[in-house]
Design brief:
Elements: E1 7-8, H1 11-24, H2 28-34, H3 40-43, H4 49-57, E2 62-63, H5 65-80, H6 84-87, E3 95-97, H7 100-111, H8 118-124, H9 133-140, E4 146-148, H10 149-165
Antiparallel strand pairs: 1-2, 3-4
Helix pairs in contact: 1-5, 2-4, 7-10
Length: 166
């Protein structure tokens, strides 16, 4: 399809995608990998997670109408057939939910040092290499619902060590 055949994405079209995505709980990457992988537009690389995320963020203002309908249909089929539960395990075994107790530990650890030194504290304490200050901050401020089990265990150990020194 030529670029001049693309449609302008309206605010309502983007909101529809956002609501379908939220209702299903399935992210764009998973949708493209699981539901659209065999779709010709996906194989031709005209429909990728980056394109759909561009629609949602407003960075891409136009869309191939066939691609847009394919994404909407894929999300609708997830909801209609209750397929999303199989695509989206709530909390895989290697993840734990950030509950009030964990958030309290995160706050305590954060308050025990300056913000700029959280990275240094994590490094000094032997934290897993993928537990970064950014991930710590996201967990602390509620921008993620879960942590890797190894990260939660390290934060708990750090909390215990710091609370004994006070």
């Amino acid at each position: 399809m030529a670029k001049n055949d693309y449609i302008r994405l309206t605010k309502q079209m983007v909101e529809r995608l956002e609501s379908l995505k939220a209702a299903s709980g399935v992210g764009v990457v998973t949708l493209c990998q699981q539901k659209l992988a065999s779709w010709p537009g996906h194989r031709n690389r005209t429909l990728t997670p980056s394109v759909v995320n561009g629609w949602l963020s407003g960075a891409i203002k136009n869309a191939d109408p066939v691609c847009y309908r394919a994404v909407v249909s894929a999300y609708e089929s997830l909801l209609d057939n209750n397929e999303f539960a199989a695509l989206r395990p709530r909390h895989p075994k290697n993840r734990v939910e950030i509950d009030a107790e964990m958030r309290r530990k995160l706050r305590f650890v954060a308050n025990s040092c300056r913000r700029s030194s959280i990275a240094a504290l994590l490094k000094r304490s032997g934290a897993p290499s993928d537990l970064t200050a950014d991930k710590f901050s996201k967990a602390l401020h509620g921008r993620t619902e879960t942590l890797l089990r190894s990260h939660a265990e390290h934060i708990s150990q750090l909390y215990e060590a710091l609370s004994q020194t006070r």
